[in-house]
Amino acid sequence: MGFAIAKRLVQSGCTVYTNLDNRSPAAHQCALDAGMITLPIETFLSKSNFISNIVLPGEENVFAQKIRSILGTHFGSALPLRAFVDCNTVNPEAVKRIGGVCSGTPSMQGS
């Protein structure tokens, strides 16, 4: 699903960055086919205004924690404002866990 969304965004004129650490050669090819630009995670985060979370079920909280940790480590108190969009279907308890990861940051919630 993530590659299809990325392809549509690229076709609409957006630049779409991704980080594919520890992903298969097939995932790298899908990203290339979609027009995505693969970057190291720190560069990806420094260049991105919007971060969409489209991961395998059960990995959404791990991804949110990873992003929060890297942003805090590399940007410290000058934590840049980023829109974090969770595109996964998650239950209310998972939403609370992800929200806890982002506590202390500006937020806007939707349904």
List keywords for this structure.
111 residues; mainly alpha; two-stranded parallel ribbon; two-stranded parallel sheet; 5 helices; 48% helix; globular
Describe the SSE topology.
Blueprint: H1 2-11, E1 17-18, H2 25-34, E2 37-38, H3 41-47, E3 50-53, H4 60-75, E4 83-86, H5 92-101
Helix pairs in contact: 1-2, 4-5
Describe the structure.
The chain has helices at 2-11, 25-34, 41-47, 60-75, 92-101, and strands at 17-18, 37-38, 50-53, 83-86. It is mainly alpha-helical and 111 residues long. The chain has a two-stranded parallel sheet. The protein has a two-stranded parallel ribbon with strand order 3-4. β3 (50-53), α4 and β4 (83-86) form a beta-alpha-beta unit. The longest helix has 16 residues, at 60-75. It is globular.
Brief summary:
With 111 residues, the protein is mainly α. 48% of the residues lie in helices and 11% in strands.
The helix-and-strand class reads mainly alpha
Count the helices. How many? 5
Residues in β-strands, percent: 5-15%
Distance between the termini: 19 Å
The description of the largest β-sheet is: 2 strands, parallel
If strands are numbered along the chain, what order do they take across the biggest sheet? 1-2
User: Residue ranges: pLDDT <50 for 5 or more in a row?
Assistant: none
Radius of gyration: 14 Å
E-strand count: 4
Query: How confident overall, as mean pLDDT?
Result: 79
Shape: globular
SSE string, helices as H and strands as E: HEHEHEHEH
Helix proportion? 40-55%
